[in-house]
C-alpha cells in the first residue's frame, strides 16, 4: 500500500533556513526506509507508517531544539487509488488486523502508553479522513463518521487529548506519545486497506501556548 | 450547512507576532459575516465559503506584504455531520447547483477567469477530500476519486495549475485567482450538500521558490 506525507516545517525566526537544514539532518537514520523529495512548499516523504511518524517526530524535535516557535504541517495519506504502489511502503511489522472498534481503541491506546517521551512538549491538532466509505445510516453518522467517532474515543484514552475543536482534535503532551498518537490514529482507523488521509499541525515553543 | 476553517499563519521572521497581529486587521471587513476564535495553534473562522476564501486571501496577502517568507495553512470543511449548523454559514448567493462533471469544470474555470489579481504571487498546494461517498467501481476509482479527478481537470483549466504532486496538487499565480481556484475546488466538487474537507498550504516570498 502506498503511504507517505507532504511535510512543511516553519520555524518563525530570521534564521529559519539554518534551522530547517539542521532539522533535516535528523532524517538521516531514516533515509534507507524513506524516499525524500523537496520543493519550495513541502518535502515528500514516502514510506511505511511505522517509519513516517518517528521520522516526523525526529525532524520536528530537532527543529524545536532551536527554541524558535516552530510548526510542522503534514498531509499524510495511505491507500490512495490514484498513487502507484511502491515497495518502500511495505510495512516491516504486522499492522493492526482490524477487529471491533472497542478492540482497536484499546490496542491503539495500549501502544501509545508504551511510547517513550523525548523531553519536548508540543501541541498538535489533526483531522482524519477515511475516504471511500459510504454513509451507512439515515442520520448521516455511519461509514466514515463511525471511524472518526471511534478514533475520538481512542484520543480521549491516549493521554494526549486536550479538546475537540471544530474540524479537528487537539492534543498536547510530550512529542513521543503525541506522534505515537498520530501514528495510531492513522493506522488503526479507517479500513485497513482503505484510502485514509490525515491533516496534522504540530506546534512547539509558541509564545501564546496555554 | 456548517462551513469554516482552522487557519494557521506562519511568518518566518523574528517579528512574527507583529506580522500576524497586523494581518488579522485585514479580517475586519469580513467580521460581520464570520465567527472568529483563536487559540495557540489556529484561528477558527466559521462562515459561508464565499466569505471564507476572500477573507483568507486578504489575511495572507497582508502578511505577505511584510516581505517575510509566510505560509498559511487552512483546514477547511463543509457539511460535517458532527458539527452543529450555524445561521452565519447560510450562503448569501446561489451556490453551484451541481450538474454534470463537464459543466461543473467549465463553470468553475469561468469564475476563476473573472477573479481580480491582487499583485502578490503565491504558491499553493492542497488536497480535497469528498467524504461519505462510496467507491462505486471495481477498480476503486469511482465515488470520491471521480470527484477528485474532475477537480483536477478543473485545476488544469484554471490558469493556476503548476503540477500534480503525491497526495496534493500545486498551484502558482497571483493570490486573487489562486484563492478563487481553492474556493471553486471546495464548492464545485463533492456532493453539493455532502461532507467535504480541504487541506491547503499557501506560501509567499520563499527563498527557494522556482
UniProtKB/TrEMBL annotation, chains A, B:
Q: Domain Thiamin/hydroxymethyl pyrimidine-binding YkoF putative, which positions?
A: 4-83, 122-208
Gene3D superfamilies for the chain: 3.30.70.930
Q: Which residues of this UniProt protein bind thiamine?
A: 9, 43
GO MF annotations for this entry?
Answer: thiamine binding
A matching Pfam family:
Ykof
The protein depicted here goes by the name: YKOF-related Family
Amino acid at each position: 500500500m502506498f503511504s507517505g506525507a507532504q511535510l512543511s516545517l516553519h520555524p518563525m525566526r530570521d534564521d529559519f533556513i539554518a534551522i530547517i537544514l539542521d532539522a533535516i539532518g535528523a532524517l538521516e537514520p531514516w533515509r534507507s526506509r524513506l524516499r525524500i523529495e523537496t520543493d519550495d512548499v513541502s518535502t515528500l516523504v514516502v514510506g511505511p507508517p511505522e517509519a513516517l511518524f518517528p521520522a516526523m517526530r525526529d525532524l520536528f524535535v530537532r527543529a524545536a531544539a532551536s527554541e524558535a516557535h516552530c510548526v510542522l504541517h503534514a498531509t499524510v495519506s495511505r491507500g490512495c487509488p490514484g498513487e502507484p504502489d511502491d515497495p518502500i511502503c511495505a510495512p516491516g511489522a504486522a499492522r493492526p488486523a482490524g477487529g471491533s472498534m472497542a478492540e482497536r481503541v484499546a490496542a491503539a491506546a495500549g501502544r501509545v502508553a508504551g511510547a517513550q517521551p523525548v523531553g519536548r512538549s508540543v501541541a498538535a491538532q489533526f483531522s482524519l479522513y477515511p475516504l471511500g466509505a459510504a454513509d451507512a445510516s439515515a442520520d448521516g453518522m455511519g461509514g466514515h463518521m463511525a471511524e472518526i467517532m471511534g478514533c475520538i474515543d481512542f484520543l480521549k484514552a491516549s493521554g494526549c487529548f486536550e479538546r475537540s475543536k471544530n474540524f479537528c482534535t487537539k492534543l498536547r503532551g510530550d512529542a513521543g506519545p503525541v506522534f505515537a498518537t498520530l501514528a495510531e490514529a492513522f493506522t488503526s482507523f479507517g479500513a485497513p486497506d482503505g484510502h485514509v488521509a490525515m491533516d496534522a499541525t504540530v506546534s512547539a515553543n509558541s509564545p501564546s501556548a496555554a
